[in-house]
Amino acid sequence: IMQAVRYPPLVAAGSEVRSVVVHTDTSATLMDLASVVPGFALDGVSWKGDLVGAPAATTKPKFMEMLTDRSVVAGKYKYIGKGKPNLDTENLAGMYASYNDCEQLYDLTIDGAEQINLAGDAEYAGLLQVFRGYMACHDQATTAENAVPCRDAV
Predict the structure, then answer these.
(1) Which tens digit of pLDDT belongs to each residue from 79-115?
(2) What CA–CA distances, in Å, run from 18 to 9, 55, 113, 139?
(3) Residues 6 or more apart from 143 whose CB is under 8 A from it?
(4) How far apart are CA 22 and CA 33, in angstroms?
(5) Environment class of 131 (CB within 10 Å of its CB; exposed 0-12, middle 13-18, buried 19+)
(6) Dihedral angle, C-alpha 134, 139, 145, 150, nearest 10 °
(7) Calpha distance 5→14 (Å, rounded)
(8) DSSP letters of 90-147?
(9) What's this model's pTM, rounded to 2 decimal places?
(10) Residue 18, class by beta-carbon neighbours within 10 Å (0-12 exposed, 13-18 middle, 19+ buried)?
């Protein structure tokens, strides 16, 4: 989903951020732009550096949810886990070859259109386990009291 930012003292007209950002990054970014230091840990990561041409090297996994699909992006990979089939799969299944697969793993540097599902490739079995762990950690962190944040991506 695209976002538009207008802040002439900092952001040049026509600038684009190509990094993966999620909605929780917005509050972290706005606080960073306002030089506000939160008194608690934020789920998101500021993309102020991306706006000024100095992207931060973050390895924090980014979690997303849509309907029953949940995904995590860490480094150059994206993992998608499906809870149950969505009702309107005909259009999306035509766009994404592996749309109905329960687990999907993509290398976004060579497959930004998410057409080559690596989840069934034995070469990526270890990485698939890592991403399953991220998702399990996220589930625990978002449902339990006094949860410990998930570790950084590998």
Answers:
(1) 998 765 555 555 555 556 566 668 899 999 899 888 9
(2) 21, 10, 14, 27
(3) none
(4) 17
(5) buried
(6) 10
(7) 10
(8) HHHHHH-TTTT-SEEEEETTT-TT--S--TT-GGGHHHHHHHHHHHHHHHHHHHSTTP
(9) 0.67
(10) exposed
